[in-house]
Amino acid sequence: MTNIIQLDKNDLFEVLESWYNRMIADTTRKAEEQVQNQLVSRQEAAKIANKSTTWLWRMEKCNYLKPVRVGGSVKYRISDIQRLINGEE
Asked: Is residue 42 a contact partner of residue 74, using CB atoms and an 8 Å limit?
């Protein structure tokens, strides 16, 4: 049994436009998630937060910010920095 679907050009355009918009939204969301989970150095984190590295150290000591240790270096997730400067916990 063969099913045949007929679409006029406007219907086809709507289907393709909807598919395209979903693909763009999904790709954008994935790219944003990758940026949010990206690790940055202490100096880069301070620059993103527009604060000093001492401020980062204080936020660590107060358990507001948890660094990620990679080998001998300290890194921070961009999402954690943004959460902190936006006042979220």
From this structure: yes
